[in-house]
Design a protein that fits this description.
6-stranded mixed β-sheet; Type 1 dockerin domain; disordered N terminus; 7 helices; 37% strand
Length: 472
């Protein structure tokens, strides 16, 4: 199930106006060959994955991507300035938990490949408006351009994510240089032990950021994902039976695997400031509920630095667990990649937050193409409430409807369980309900111990508590 929501305060509205003006000016400055037309780059295919090797506890990969220009104007692909795309890859896993819940985690990310020229191929259509022969400096519309995993993993050609504003598409050129570790430096790094979970399914997504695409406000469809097949310790491949899911980031793989997951699309403005918020709740066997929330930042330059979840203040949630993939190779906060967010329970909210941007500009915020997972347990049953998602580099927040902990619920007594029809008394009516549904009966109220069968165990419950007052 997908929702779309835009709720904003004055600070966010001001940001939206500024971003809209910036993109409008960029379109006017660049001009267009065709009135009313603009380029629109997507990832048409995630087509290849290479494992480069393992150093210590880190394994490095790179993915191949095939882009398509689905707009109606040429997309610049100029190697020696900032009129070309930057290409990023990330890896994720969807875990099946013992309590029946699932959760998605981002487990790896790469630096960015800088594009240098564009072939004119036909993955997404006829390519009747080619940018030219050979490997020209622009991509025609409905034309495609493949970058192999080897090219996207070429360490000397990779630049920092922190140099790119994913909202406007702008980046400094040339990218900052510097040394890098052999084998794993700058590539898509994954902690090898995270690949060993037997109850996990793995995915990658690729994303293209381009200033012309962003200027046309076409940046929200730039990510596509694909399922991976894992063999051995860390060998990953693609299968033809699991094609690329176009124009969706990998958080939607979680929803595709688990019908209990709800994903909400949140736009902080009407131009390239999009995040996706996912959540799921599962009831445990001990009278508690597991709450799981994820935030995926598609292209929001300001980042996300705080998440506030309402809860019943008399019961503080426990078993808090957070996961966010570290940056690496000197990127952002890599001097302390294990630093996690603070958690406080104050009043009627559970607050998760990193350091304020004013105190630490390199704090561990949720930056673009990044996903953070938050999980905790509560004795309170789920109810609808508003989760507040706060910007990091500036003020402002969005509120999104989600399942949140409500009033605490006491587990039923044995007498209440035996009172099948909930009339306050264990009597012949309850006995008849057990006998009437005798046999296989998954989910029916007569299956008191919830083992999928109405049998002698349920009958003994009725007889053992015969005559008790379940409401007294």
């Amino acid at each position: 199930m997908k929702f779309s929501l835009t709720i904003g305060g004055l600070a966010v509205a001001t940001t939206a106006v500024l971003i809209g003006q910036m993109n409008t000016d960029a379109v006017a400055a660049r001009g267009s060959s065709f009135a009313g037309c603009a380029p629109d780059v997507i990832v048409g295919d995630v087509q290849e994955i290479i494992r480069h090797g393992t150093v210590g506890d880190i394994t490095a990969y790179s993915i191949g991507t095939n882009s398509c220009n689905m707009g109606c104007d040429y997309l610049a692909w100029e190697a020696n300035n900032n009129s070309h795309p930057t290409i990023g890859g990330s890896m994720y896993r969807v875990l099946e938990l013992e309590n029946g819940c699932t959760r998605i985690e981002q487990i790896g990310r790469s630096w960015l490949k800088h594009g240098f020229c564009a072939l004119q191929q036909t993955l997404c259509g006829s390519c009747s408006n080619s940018g030219g022969g050979g490997c020209p400096d622009r991509l025609g519309w409905v034309c495609s351009d493949p970058y192999t995993a080897s090219l996207n993993g070429q360490q000397s050609g990779l630049g920092r994510r922190s140099e790119v504003n994913a909202t406007t598409g702008f980046f400094e050129y040339p990218p900052a240089g510097g040394s890098y570790a052999s084998t794993i430096g700058r590539r898509l790094q994954v902690q090898t032990d995270l690949l060993q979970a037997e109850n996990a399914t793995f995915f990658v997504d690729g994303v293209y950021i381009h200033p012309d695409d962003a200027a046309a406000c076409n940046g929200n469809n730039n990510a596509s994902y694909r399922k991976l097949n894992k063999t051995g310790t860390n060998t990953l491949s693609f299968q033809n039976s699991s094609p690329t899911v176009r124009e969706q980031p990998a958080i939607y793989a979680w929803e595709a695997m688990d019908p209990n997951v709800r994903i909400t699309t949140i736009d902080f403005s009407d131009c390239n400031e999009r995040i996706h918020f996912g959540h799921s709740v599962c009831e445990n066997d001990d009278g508690t509920w597991t709450y799981i929330y994820t935030v995926y930042n598609m292209n929001l330059h300001h980042g996300i630095g705080k998440i506030m979840v309402p809860f019943n203040g008399s019961t503080v949630p426990g078993d808090v667990d957070m996961h966010m993939c570290p940056y690496h190779s000197g990127e952002y906060y890599a001097e302390d990649p294990t630093e996690d967010w603070d958690v406080t329970a104050n009043g009627d909210h559970l607050t998760f937050e990193c350091e304020a941007h004013a105190s630490n500009p390199d704090a561990n915020a949720i930056l673009w193409q990044s996903l953070k997972t938050i999980q905790f347990t509560s004795t309170s049953a789920p109810t609808d409430g508003f989760v507040d998602i706060h910007l990091h580099k500036t003020s402002g927040f969005e509120s999104v409807v989600a399942s949140v902990p409500g009033e605490p619920v006491e587990p039923p007594t044995d007498c209440e369980l035996a009172d099948v029809n909930d009339d306050g008394l264990v009597d012949g009516t309850d006995l008849s309900l057990v006998l009437g549904f005798w046999g296989n009966c998954t989910g029916c109220e007569s299956d008191i111990n919830e083992d999928g069968t109405v049998d002698g165990i349920d009958l003994s419950f009725i007889l053992g508590w015969w005559g008790c007052d379940s409401q007294g």
